[in-house]
Amino acid sequence: MPAIVVAGLERAFGEFRAVQGIDLAVEEGEIYGFLGPNGAGKTTTVRMLTTLLLPTGGRASVAGHDVVSEARQVRASIGVALQEAALDPLMTGRELIRLQATLQGLPPVEGRKRADSLLERVDLAAAADRRVGTYSGGMQRRLDLAAALVHEPRVLFLDEPTTGLDPVSRKTIWEEVRALNDDGTTVFLTTQYLEEADQLADNVGIIDNGRIVAEGTPEELKAEVGNPHIELGVGEGAVAEAERVLGEIGRLLPPKGGKRVLVEVEQGSAEIPRVVRALDEAGIEVESLELVRPTLDDVFVDKTGYHLEEEEAGEESGERSPA
User: Fold this and answer.
1) Are strands 155-159 and 16-26 parallel, antiparallel or unpaired?
2) How many angstroms separate the CA atoms of 46 and 56, rounded?
3) Are residues 68 and 97 in the same domain?
4) Are residues 135 and 97 in the same domain?
């Protein structure tokens, strides 16, 4: 039986439907990447699957238990590290993990052993007796991860665990997620980072505006997109004319901004001479040219019509109100 089964799951807030009848299944021992921008319904879905929010429609089970009628059994089977770690800044890392062990019903001796082991595992043993308020963002994420593992859950929910972290801290989290999965833990990972989903996930679900718009392995999804594309940098003021010329050669893709033009081509590198020649004949200067194989960004564009990274940048500058 799958570790997670979701059928027609919905959540409405008044007239607004944040999650609109999604279906998915996550197998035991799998890393499932749930990909989408802020406001797409990722966190709302996680909150329902972890019993923190009641669905308004559909059903879901986690570790074989219904999230509504068997909420207590679900909570006993899962670990949860949410986007905003709720860590007491006045406690030490060791105190916090031991407290979590007590709350999970572990005997004192076992709780102390488990805390020491987990602090070592997430590379926080040297900082174990420092107050959490002195920890960096990456250290706090690793501590929150350790707290979620105290009771050795069958299913681990990670809600954007690397958002805002530097590249080194992000890769440290990735390594720990892989290690946990190698030990048999099923991981449900929400993320807004394409590379993270591509690197970690066995299967990926892309959610946009409360609906799953694509699902499959990263390689399957990229194969669906099919053809590679050529990304060109052109001279100042030449984007519109370049798009007109290249539109006769291949399918134009949504631009990434600036002086960049993207065109999908069937024959890959074999099309490059034709592209350069057409632009030269039109008097358009080519400043850069790159052949790009399909990526999860291409899948996202194909399914939603926009680039995920640009959407996130817009949200950070206040251009989009998250749902």
Assistant:
1) unpaired
2) 14
3) yes
4) yes
60 and 100 in contact (C-beta within 8 Å)? no
Rounded to two decimals, the pTM is: 0.78
- Domain assignment of residue 16, given as a range: 4-219
CA distance linking residue 124 with residue 176, whole number of Å: 13
H-assigned helices in the chain: 42-49, 71-77, 93-103, 108-121, 137-148, 167-182, 194-200, 218-225, 239-246, 272-281, 296-304, 308-316
Query: Identity (one letter) of the amino acid at 87?
Result: L
- Select from 194, 219, 244 the last residue of a domain: 219
- Cα separation of 112 and 128, whole Å? 12
Considering the domain architecture, whether residues 149 and 277 belong to the same structural domain is answered as no
For residue 166 the two structure tokens come to: 């530097």
Q: Are residues 271 and 288 in the same domain?
A: yes
* Chain centroid to CA 147: 21
Q: Is residue 319 part of a domain?
A: no
Residue 185 shares a structural domain with residue 37: yes
216 pLDDT more than 60: yes
Q: What span, in angstroms and rounded, lies between the C-alpha atoms of 212 and 294?
A: 20
Count: domains in the chain: 2
> Do 149 and 65 share a structural domain?
yes
318 found inside a domain: no
pLDDT digits (tens, 9 = 90+) for 240-289: 999 999 999 998 988 776 788 999 888 878 889 999 999 999 999 899 99
DSSP, res 134 = G
CA nearest 187: which of 220, 154, 215? 154
Buried b (16+ CB within 10 A) or exposed e, 108-139: eeebeebbeebbebbebeebbeeebeebeebb
